[in-house]
Amino acid sequence: MNKRNVPQERRPVPGAEKAKLNRLKPKSRLVVIGVILIIVLIAAVSAWAQSFNLSLVGGDNAEVACDGRGVQVQRLSRTAVNIICSGPSSDPQPTATAEPTNPPAPTATSPAPEPTNPPPEPTATRPVPEPTATTPPPSPTAPPPPGGNIQPFAGAPACEEIGVAHDDRAWHGIWNYDYGCHWDHEHKQNPHDVDAIFGTEYYSLAGGELSYPWQTYAGAGEAFEAYVAGTATENTAKHEGYGWHYFTNGLEICDQSLLLGSQCFDSFRVELHQVGGEVGALTRFHSVYSEGIACSPEGAARMQFNNGAYGRNINGQFYALTRDNINQFPAEFAGCGFGSGGGWLDLGRLNWPERGILQPLPNDNAQFANFAQFGPPEAAPYRIHPYNSPNSLDSWQSEGNVFNCLNSDPNCEQRIMVGYGLHILQGESIGMTEPTNASVPANLRNTQYWCVDPQTQLFNCDPQSNPGGNDNTAQALFRAWIAVPSGLDGSQYDEDGARNGAFTFHGYTNRYGDVVDGCSAPGLDCVPVRFEQFPLNNCGQTACKAAYRGGTDRDGWDALSVDGTPIQSGGTPLIPAGELWLKYPN
After folding, report:
1. What was the pLDDT predicted at 506?
2. pLDDT tens across 120-155, in order?
3. What is the model's pTM?
4. Which member of 231, 235, 260, 298 lies 3.0 to 4.6 Å from 211 by CB, making a disulfide possible if both were Cys?
5. How far apart are CA 222 and CA 286, in angstroms?
């Protein structure tokens, strides 16, 4: 008989379960408390905001409503966005926005001397309506994400498509890194890159980074002196033509620059207006603003190169060659100074259909055909736009001009002058120039453009084989200059009160560069100028010119290149391959 083992009944040991329970209680308490906190947190967050993941397929449409202060859209990639509904403000009263403080305008000086041939009266004595600054557009629907750095990607939207408002007084490139969107035009180099040298006063005087109260307007010229209200202005009609160019540390090529003048520029910043091709070629006057730091040969020789910049060691510390440092240490920076000015720039005669052939236009000065006075057509000032040549090197050059020889001033009395020379690099010309169109309204002109789709106005050059080509983005500022009549040294306008080879002046000129009185704010014929010990040494009997001489190799700039190197010269394209972002004009 098999004996079967019967399992023993397990009886609880008195007190054992209580001990085990006591060991588990602390952990259970933490779990219970944690669960309660999570429930409370979820309830609180749910009362404040909710997050959803929403996936759409082709053809779907989603409408999002926000019961809060506003919606912020952050583009994460080509196929993903993050939408944030801002909660109610903790302050029910809106915070007042402080008005920007503008620096006081330069004080008008004593009356100007009577010129041999009087220039047009300034607006102070001949009031005329002036072009008004374009009203800034409303702010974007949502502020940009802080520290946005979205890189360009294929299929990126146009900024207007996602509600980013365009401000035609603000500088921008082709790509918006905050919103991850693109514009259909750009404005060349960022002027803020050299604010450390020139300061920010200009932006306050001009009312923004682009355009200014002395912008030109439709029909601007010698026969149309006064602005007529309602006439299209340069910024409203041809905003895309504004661009900035600058350079620094020009003393390294000072010997070349001295071939053009008696002083040379170390640094220079210029805002110009230029639309390549016919639109600009048929226009004689274009607006401009320039500022630069100039040195005489003696002043340049005293400069030292340190940490990538020219300047001086003063009391054991290095100071770069900037406008403010010149003001702070005038003796140590003797021989170097600052100058600025602007107005209307006369770009002279049109060379067409090739260089050296004068093509008269209806708004030309009759004196332009006088080669004895002005030299051959290719002598500056000129605009060269070859016919039927998409790979031409178009050229604008104002040097040699005494800042506008007007019918009212046939002897071209010397004025305060600024100017530049600009190459549109080969392959970047927009299209043909037809001189007969100068007498035809812009909307009725029949013009042949290269690589421009007539329906979309997009530059449609093959972006694979010619990225960025034929869109007028690759330019070279190969000349820059400011000239001051040598007779202003020690005159009633020279605020240092001595004939010492340096000119200091804070005041205004009219649009042509004549010193005027009675101005209290910038205007069409009240262009602010500023000179701080600008060098006027050994300049001869006429004008003292500070100049910069560069070239297409040194100064080629392509706004569609990652680093500014022209794409045709090996620069890396900023626009993704296969994309068409730019429209005419640009």
Report:
1. 96
2. 343 333 333 455 444 443 344 444 554 578 999 999
3. 0.76
4. 235
5. 13
- Residues 233-289: pLDDT tens digits? 999 999 999 999 999 988 887 877 777 778 899 999 999 999 888 889 999 899 999
Nearest to 196 by CA among 332, 57, 307: 307
Q: In which band, very low, low, confident or very high, does the pLDDT at 400 lie, cut at 50, 70 and 90?
A: low
Tokens 């009577």 map to which residue? Answer: 114
Q: Residue 264: name the closest of 572, 545, 575 by CA.
A: 545
Is pLDDT at 531 greater than 80 in this prediction? yes
CA triplet 125, 127, 132: central angle to 5 degrees? 135
Cβ distance 410 to 428 under 8 Å?
A: no
Residue 169 has pLDDT above 50, yes or no: yes
User: Which 3 state secondary structure label does DSSP give 382?
Assistant: strand
What gap in Å lies between CA 573 and CA 565, rounded to an integer? 9
- From CA 533, how far away is CA 219, in angstroms rounded? 38
Cβ within 8 Å of residue 197, ≥6 positions away: 248, 267, 269, 293, 320, 321, 322, 323
Region of 502 please: left (phi>0), alpha (psi -120 to 50) or beta: beta
- State which amino acid sits at residue 39: I
Residue pair 157/181 in contact (Cβ under 8 Å)? The answer is yes
CA dihedral (28, 34, 37, 38) in degrees, to 10, reads: -130
Greatest alpha-carbon span in the chain: 147
Distances (CA, A) of 100 to 205, 208, 268, 373: 12, 12, 27, 48
Q: Are strands 309-314 and 474-485 parallel, antiparallel or unpaired?
A: unpaired
